[in-house]
Design goal:
This protein is α/β, with parallel strands linked by helices and 210 residues long. It has nine helices and seven strands. The protein has a seven-stranded parallel β-sheet, sandwiched between helices. It binds adenosine-5'-diphosphate (ADP) and magnesium ion (MG). Belongs to the DEAD box helicase family. This is DEAD-box ATP-dependent RNA helicase.
């Protein structure tokens, strides 16, 4: 499969992708979307710039129940810049399909306004691990409706020392969920993390091409 139109997506979704000039899938998207759209756990490794954000945003938007105004997906990312980029991509991809509320919760930003935003509700939360854990501990966020967890740039999050936070966050999530792990590298530490948080994951690797 090379084109988004070959995927089992709604007409609205496909025309939206088209209007964003997303017609041909990148290799990581070709290899991962058939599994991720089937709600399977997945480890995807491909270098920077290969289109990993779109690869995990599409299944999230595809299964979102917009009428249920509850946090259904949690995306963990290492930095605020990256979290904001992901939130922007989600908003772009869902335009004309759903009116979704995406919230970013990052460290270095005032805490109370984030708590207030959580109180008002969101469909998707994009967060850095330390900050979302703080909201979890203060009971600001309800996690029982989360059906998808994404770890983006997992290698970078581990390099930054977020391992314990990530595990603590995951221990509070529903067991029945889809977990998608994206990384530019795949070393022993990622393998160890993956084996403790994913269930029978499909491993997708793209070596050097885009
Ligand atoms: P990665 O997370 O793998 O580093 P990104 O998700 O940031 O890569 O994507 C890099 C760039 O490629 C972005 O500008 C994105 O809009 C673009 N892109 C992603 N998928 C496609 C596609 N199928 N066709 C064209 N451009 C794409
Ligand atoms: Mg990325």
């Amino acid at each position: 499969m090379k084109k988004f139109s070959q995927l089992n997506l709604s007409k609205e979704f496909l025309s939206n992708l088209d209007s964003l000039s997303y017609t041909e899938m990148t290799t990581i998207q070709q290899k991962s979307l058939p599994f991720s759209l089937e709600n399977k756990d997945l480890i995807a490794q491909a270098k920077t710039g290969s289109g990993k954000t779109v690869a995990f945003c599409i299944p999230i938007i595809n299964k979102l129940k917009v009428k249920e105004f509850k946090v259904q997906s949690l995306i963990l990312a290492p930095t605020r810049e990256l979290a904001n980029q992901i939130a922007q991509e989600l908003r772009k991809l869902s335009r004309h399909i759903h009116n979704i509320k995406v919230l970013t919760l990052c460290g270095g930003m005032p805490f109370k306004p984030q708590a207030l935003s959580l109180f008002h509700g969101a469909h998707i939360v994009v967060a850095t691990p330390g900050r979302v854990l703080k909201h979890i501990k203060e009971n600001n966020i309800s996690l029982e409706n989360i059906n998808t967890l994404v770890l983006d740039e997992a290698d970078k999050m581990l390099d930054m020392g977020f391992y314990d936070d990530i595990i603590e966050i995951i221990n509070t999530l529903p067991k029945k969920r889809q977990t998608l792990l994206f990384s530019a590298t795949f070393e022993k530490n990622i393998e160890n993390l993956a084996s403790s948080i994913l269930v029978e994951p499909t491993l997708v690797k793209v070596e050097d091409e885009i």
